[in-house]
Amino acid sequence: MKICLIFLSAALLMTGCAGEFNKVYKYNDMDYRYEYAKQCFAQGKFTNAETLLMDLITMKKGSDEAQESLYMLAMAEYMNRDYESASETFKKYFKTYPKGVYAEQAAFYIGQSLYQSAPEPRLDQSPTNGAITAYQEFLDLYPDSPLRQEATDRMYELYDKLTMKELLNAQLYYNLGGYFGNINSNSESNYSSCIVVAQNALKTFPYTNLREDFAVLIMKSKFELAENSTEEKKLDRYRDAEDECYGFINEYPDSKNRATAEKFIAKCKKITKD
Length: 274
Hints:
- Helix content is 80%, strand content 0%.
- It is mostly helical.
């Protein structure tokens, strides 16, 4: 009986709140609707706030309330996890009010909204690139902002995500090379593609903490490329692989892959000495 009473009370309360909102939504008094929208926002009723604010930004165009309404709408969308809409609304605010009261926060939240919608590394990284661009624009515009450190940290986090995507791409090419077997144009192409992707990633992201992972893939791919080459290409490729292995050991002397590099060097020497 107690449980039934609790559910009944909750249902009545929700019905009462919905009824109150519907009445306010029908009011012609824009000032009252504006104050009620602010109250909904403050109470965390972001869906109700959104509904009211969508009308208010038009009805109060040209007033201070219109500026605040547009920013509150963007924040309500953000809090409702509608990050795509939020980023567009923050952009609209910043474009409409570049010197507005909330311009700095809006510029920051453009990046923040795109950051929240950035997918995992295997997927298309357009939102990630968009977030990086937005954060950089924010930092250029507001170099002394108290939000600077957070924007910087998030931007580097996004760069790590882009780097991981490149690492996964390089790893895929390497795995495909082995799949096709020996002395096969496809395997050669995939090992070569792995090398190109990894080398380009190191040029683009020279300070990544995944640098050794890329170096391992380059070293392994050059060795496999030599192993799977036709006779006329073998010697040059084994020499290249041997040089790569020595370079790897010099840069990462304590690497867990050092033994692999030394094994490759021994095999390469058998070919290059003959």
